[in-house]
Amino acid sequence: MTIKDVARVAQVSVATVSRALNGHGNVAEEVRNRVFAAAQELRYTPHAAARSLSSRRTQTLGVVLPDLHGEFFSELMRGIDQVARSQHLHLLVSSYHGNPQEQGAALRAMRGRVDGLLVMSPFVAAPTLLSEHLEPSLPAVLINSQAGLDGTAVLGVDNHGGAVAMVEHLVASGHRRIAFIAGPEDNFDAHERLRGYRDALRRLLPDAREWVLPGDFDEASGHRAGHELLAASPRPDAVFAANDMMALGCLFAFAQAGVKVPGDIALAGFDDIPLARYVHPALTTIRVNIAELGARAARQLIAQVAGEAAGDTSVLATQLIVRESSGTAHTPPGTPHS
């Protein structure tokens, strides 16, 4: 079926069908309804390639992410998809599996296929990597990426402030030996969360030593860090993981060893993924409204595609969520551990 068939059944011109289906306002409501009814009767679907040629728009947004696995990316995509669907837009999604070279290939493959790009490039060297592969004329919004690419909007999270708030909570609860499971070394979010941990520890517990373990933002690295902490003497009285997935891996290691959380060791994470409230004990964490992060980025990109100027760097606030896992230390607040 073609647009001419729809016009014949609706008894209007081809131009009227085009205006009605594209949402233009200069079509009478009765005529618009007749066009829609004819299109539905004929099961007519606009030819995407032809529409793209005539409008120079693909009605598609590109999304390039470091991974698609895990609750964080699922929530992020949920927020992006809800906004895209509300605007009758499609998504073209690609993952580069944390590989900078594959990221470049994914960005190049999007050219000519999308009206704009949502890109999460968490590498510390992201500005250099993106400048080599991001088409300057293509509207783009960077998510959780280091600022520094001229003319490109960046939407991020207050990682440093969130980490500071968590350390403040753990110290206020009486914990003094606070270990930190860090994220990937080349990840900007991980750097900011580690910086927040260090700044808060120096300010609140100037005599305490840093206790940082390597991690990779996945359950396995949290599990490994948990076993390493169990072998320490003395053990920490609290563990702050740079994301919830590592915290859950650490929780499993403690459970395997019969170590009680929070009775023996307190535990906290970052992100507030949906699973965090359903484990036992429920996880104390820093809430990032992940779906809203995706939704805001999508809205900002759609505005750019429509001709609005690119926004500056903006930061999404975080929120401390206290649940059972952080507990209260056995030692009264203010009493230093040996």
From TrEMBL:
Residues covered by the HTH lacI-type domain: 1-55
Keywords of this entry: DNA-binding, Repressor, Transcription, Transcription regulation
Presence of the UniProt keyword DNA-binding in the record: yes
Gene Ontology molecular functions: DNA binding
InterPro entries: HTH_LacI (IPR000843), LacI/GalR-like_sensor (IPR046335), Lambda_DNA-bd_dom_sf (IPR010982), Peripla_BP_I (IPR028082)
Cited PROSITE patterns: HTH_LACI_1, HTH_LACI_2
Transmembrane segments: none
Annotated protein name in UniProt: LacI family DNA-binding transcriptional regulator
Species of the source: Lysobacter stagni
